[in-house]
């Protein structure tokens, strides 16, 4: 293992009774990178994070953080980690100031109250009770507490859910700044554009297994075709060269043309040459490169292909379709998703902090 490796996961499996939540997952995270662990609902992201954070034992395979087993090495690891859960479970009657002051006691050399609140833009809310904070402000407080101990490795589990656009922007800027200073980040999020903006590498899970792993460019190149769209008069659309493989649909009294391609440059050149030869203007021509959303939307199709005789990739999935892992759920849940409701998980931050030995 290279000295630059912060996290190493090899063939990890985690079972909940008869349910295999994580099934043969392997990846590593290098020092100073932002690694986005993405996936559909119920894909196994939180379970994987639980193992890395030392809250859950692996059923099989291995996971190390800074070369240590996250469970047996938890006391040594805790001062080096910052953990922002989906919901930390605050004491509602404490003020923001009291909360930060209480948590500071768990660290050897914590950031000051002023610095912490300044970092996350909560200076003006110091004397507000936690119960009166908005959802986005609670997430900011969560982030501040995760940064309190100057962590080397920060786990962010859906950090910006509930934040307004300004809060999201500021929080992502803050994380980027800390990464430039050497912080390593493992991020899970349902806001795919957030991963596109922040992540050096992405891993995409679906039904317990890892389906994509690499830099954003690698993942998009593998499965995120670019899209060329243009509106044309219907009679012109009928004349499009067949080798452009365009999809044509009626829209606004004309035709909406879409070309999906892994080689947008060449398709665009041919389309423009065809337009010029026939004197057809294309004022609303658009080229959009493939996105993570396209990659996500392809995942269930891959499973369907794999289930067909002789089709698709081998070894996908750890079980049949479940109601909670549909991509539609994932996409709709990007707006205003609130946490697990798992009381065990919600009290873990306090447990984690008390184990720092401070
Ligand atoms: N405590 C538990 N007991 C039994 N099954 C569980 C438990 N926690 C999670 N699971 C199951 O394990 C699978 C993976 O869940 P996990 O929470 O890790 O997924 P996730 O990718 O984080 O999902 P989401 O994006 O919805 O938060 C799901 O099928 C889930 O129902």
TrEMBL record:
PROSITE patterns: ABC_TRANSPORTER_1, ABC_TRANSPORTER_2
Domain ABC transporter intervals: 7-232
Superkingdom, taxonomy of origin: Bacteria
Bilayer topology annotation: Peripheral membrane protein
The keyword ATP-binding is annotated on this UniProt entry: yes
MF terms in GO: ATP binding; ATP hydrolysis activity
Keyword Secreted tagged: no
Subcellular location: Cell membrane
Residue ranges, annotated region (Disordered): 303-358
Gene3D superfamilies: P-loop containing nucleotide triphosphate hydrolases
Any one Gene Ontology BP term: response to antibiotic
Assigned keywords, A-Z: Antibiotic resistance, ATP-binding, Nucleotide-binding, Transport
GO cellular component, one term: plasma membrane
Basic and acidic residues: bias regions: 339-348
Ranges annotated as biased composition (Gly residues): 309-320
Primary residence: membrane
Protein name listed in UniProt: ABC-2 type transport system ATP-binding protein
Species this protein is from: Terracoccus luteus
Lineage: Bacteria, Bacillati, Actinomycetota, Actinomycetes, Micrococcales
């Amino acid at each position: 293992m290279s000295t630059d490796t912060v996290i190493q996961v090899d063939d990890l499996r985690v079972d909940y009774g008869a349910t295999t939540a994580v099934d043969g997952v392997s990846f590593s995270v290098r020092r100073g990178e932002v690694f986005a662990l993405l996936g559909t609902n119920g894909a196994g992201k939180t379970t994987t994070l639980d193992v890395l954070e030392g809250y859950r034992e692996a059923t099989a395979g291995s996971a190390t953080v800074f070369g240590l087993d996250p469970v047996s090495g938890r006391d040594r690891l805790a001062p080096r980690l910052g953990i922002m859960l989906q919901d930390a479970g605050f004491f509602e009657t404490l003020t923001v100031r009291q909360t930060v002051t209480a948590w500071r006691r768990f660290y050897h050399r914590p950031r000051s109250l002023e610095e912490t609140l300044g970092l996350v833009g909560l200076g003006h809310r110091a004397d507000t009770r936690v119960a009166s904070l908005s959802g986005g402000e609670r997430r900011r407080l969560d982030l501040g507490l995760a940064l309190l101990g100057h962590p080397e490795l920060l786990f962010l589990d859906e950090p910006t859910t509930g934040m307004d656009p300004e809060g999201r922007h500021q929080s992502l800027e803050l994380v980027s700044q800390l990464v430039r200073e050497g912080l390593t980040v493992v991020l899970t999020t349902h806001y795919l554009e957030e991963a596109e903006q922040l992540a050096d590498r992405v891993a995409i899970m679906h039904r317990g297994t890892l389906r994509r792993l690499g830099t954003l460019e690698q993942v998009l190149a593998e499965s995120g075709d670019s899209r060329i769209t243009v509106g044309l008069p219907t009679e012109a659309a009928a004349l499009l060269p067949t080798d452009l493989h365009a999809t044509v649909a009626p829209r606004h009294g004309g035709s909406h043309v879409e070309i999906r391609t892994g080689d947008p440059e060449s398709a665009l050149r041919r389309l423009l040459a065809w337009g010029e030869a026939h004197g057809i203007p294309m004022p609303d021509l658009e080229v959009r490169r493939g996105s993570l959303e396209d990659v996500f939307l392809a995942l269930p199709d891959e499973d369907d292909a794999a289930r067909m005789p002789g089709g698709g990739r081998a070894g996908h999935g750890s079980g049949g379709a479940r109601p909670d892992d549909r991509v539609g759920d994932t996409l709709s849940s990007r707006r205003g998703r609130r946490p697990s409701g798992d009381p065990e998980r919600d009290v873990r931050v306090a447990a984690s902090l008390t184990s720092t030995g401070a």
